[in-house]
Amino acid sequence: RMEGFGYYALPTGTEYRGSLWDGMFHGPGELLLPGGGGYRARWVRGAPTQGKFTFADGLEYDEEKWHYCDGYDRRFYTEICSGFKPPGIPQLKNLDPPKIIPEGCYDCGDGFYNPETRVVVDYKHKFLRNADNDEHEWILRTCRKAWDVTTEHKPKP
Q1: Is residue 125 part of a domain?
Q2: Residue 106 belongs to what domain range?
Q3: Is 59 within the bounds of a domain?
Q4: In DSSP terms, which residues pair with 106 in a beta bridge?
Q5: Hey, is 134 helix, strand or coil?
Q6: Residue 18's closest CA among 5, 31, 8, 9?
Q7: Which of helix, strand or coil describes residue 145?
Q8: pLDDT the model gives residue 149
Q9: How many Å apart are CA 144 and CA 21, to the nearest integer?
Q10: Cis peptide before 28 (omega within 30 of 0)
Q11: DSSP H or E stretch at residue 40
C-alpha cells in the first residue's frame, strides 16, 4: 500500500498531495479541486481532523466567522479585496470580467449549460455532467443567460 508523501489523482479530477499511510490520507495533505481552490487538512486514517477550505479566488472559508455574502454584506470577494467599480458598470459575478456565455446557453457557476442538450461543460468546454430535471429547472430560473446580459461595458457617447 502507498506510504510516505505522495500524489493521488481521483477520477473526478480532484488531486490529493500529501502524506499517506497504509493507503490512506494520513498527516498533512491537500485536496486540489479541478476548478481551483482546495481543502488543506491534517488527516487521520483517511478522515480530516483539522482543515481549511479555500475557494479558487483565494477566499478562505471560516465556519465560525463566515460573513461573506450574508444578509448584511452582498459584495463579491473581488469587490471586498479591490473595491467597487465606478457607477454604471455592473459586476455580475465574482469573476470579473465574467466569461462570455455561448449563444443559447446559461452560466451555471461551474460552467455553461445548454438547455437543448441538457449538458453542463466547464469554462474550457470540457464535459462535466448531464443535468437532471431539478438542476435544469434551477438553471433556467436563476442563472445568467447569454441573450440577457451585455458582456462588456460600453461608455455612453
Answers
A1: yes
A2: 99-145
A3: no
A4: 113, 145
A5: helix
A6: 5
A7: strand
A8: 46
A9: 45
A10: no
A11: strand 38-44
